[in-house]
Amino acid sequence: MRFVSFAIQCRRLNVKRGSNHILHDLDLDIPQGVIMGLLGPSGSGKTTLMRSIVGLQRIESGEISVLGRPAAGKALRHEIGYSTQSASVYSDLTCIQNIEFFAALYQKNEKSPAQILEEVDLSRNAHQMASSLSGGERARLALATTLVGSPQLLILDEPTVGLDPVLRLQLWRLFNSLAEQGKTLLVSSHVMDEADSCHQLILLRNGEVLAQGTPAELRTRTGESRMDDVFISLIGEQ
Q1: Domains in the chain, start-ordered, CATH in brackets?
Q2: What is the pLDDT of residues 83-93, one digit of tens each?
Q3: Would the N or C end of the chain have less CB density within 10 A of its end CB?
Q4: CB 13 within 8 A of CB 161
């Protein structure tokens, strides 16, 4: 893959759904090799933005560049892993069968199904039915399905929703491991406490970028320490 400095760039992106204007002239730049947190309350446009980047959402106007190419291009299909809020796994298959099924859709796989399961710490569950997994194990299996092929960009829509703090911590450690391998992760959440697990943040509200920067930069800008208070302070600046 050719080198580009940004994994994702959006310019004056507008998305409408019926009479609802979801994203408003949105501009953003996401560097390669970072964990970018996409934070904001429900209804702020996080999922719509992610679907637009992946190429599953019709946009009204604007441009999206992904890994140096126009979004939704065929050349990007093997370079993006996308996990929706609903775990994309088959309950009637074992863990290894799930990975083998998704891997069969790609001509090239960076790692074997067994290596992928090892990466998400599910090797001991390889022959366990997905229907019998715990919530945390199922979340890790869903993440594993995004690692088939040779993805350079992982789009993860609220991957920690419904998980207890210990399981959330385990997933964030895994995200950091993937970033250390050079992958870029765009991770959405409405839990402000997860902000410090990200290298950089995009705060989204009402379909607009409220602010972008590192957690430290946003705290310095607002003078607040808790990310909830940072968000409220930035709303006051509008």
Answers
A1: 6-208 (3.40.50.300)
A2: 988 767 999 99
A3: C
A4: no
